[in-house]
Amino acid sequence: MDLKISDSILPNLALSREEAQLVDRCIPIKSFKAGEVLLREGQIARNCYFVIQGCVRSYHIVNGEERTTGFYLEEDSIAPLASYLSQTPAHHFLTCVEDSVLAVLHFDRERELYQKLPKMEALCRTSMEEEYAKQQDLLQNYLTKTPEERYLLLQKNRPELLQRIPQYHLATYLGVKPESLSRIRKRIAQKGHKSD
């Protein structure tokens, strides 16, 4: 693959040729197959990712059942913050839902990049802060909204997920069984017809 991070993701940073070469060396772009695991529970997260194409899912296993905590699509950053920042074992999994093309920033390369190119540190910090804010919103919604309200929020804010994500993954994300999700969708569709 001849894609370069400096061309596709960072054209607005006004990097010199040498800086662009450094960024491309430190943040290679790699392809992953659907089903490929990027991080397992118990592993230390050594990489952050940026989705160029595809979809990645984060999830926990609780009492033998998967509980989805996030979906990452094009132009989303994936930073397993707690494990990555503290270099301690992760409590979740990251898996490709679709064939995916990801920019990969390794923990050691990040340090080198910050040292040689300080403006990258501000960019990465902003990205991590945005990810943290998203996680806080997700937790807030999970604690305060019903599964149907969460589905409606998803329909409004991230409709592409409803087209691309298998129903059983969406159900675990909303905190319901797949059959409950079917009932929620049916209820919403019926309400939609009544309001026409």
With strands numbered from the N-terminus, the spatial order across the biggest sheet is: 1-8-3-6
- The fraction of residues assigned to DSSP E strands is 15-25%
Average pLDDT, rounded to a whole number, is 87
* Total of helices: 9
Order of helices and strands: HHEEEEEEHEEHHHHHH
Q: Which oligomerization state do the chains in this entry correspond to?
A: single chain
Q: How would you sum up the global shape?
A: elongated
Measure the end-to-end span.
48 Å
What is Rg?
19 Å
What level of helicity do the residues show? 40-55%
Please state the structural category: alpha+beta
Report low-confidence residues grouped into runs of 5 or more: none
How can the largest sheet be summarized?
4 strands, antiparallel
The total count of strands amounts to 8
Structural account:
The protein is an alpha+beta fold and 196 residues long. Helix content is 51%, strand content 21%. The chain is built from nine helices and eight strands. A hairpin with a 2-residue loop joins strand 4 (56-62) and strand 5 (65-72). Helix 4 (107-116) crosses helix 5 (118-144) and helix 6 crosses helix 9 (178-194). The model has no long low-confidence stretch (mean pLDDT 87).
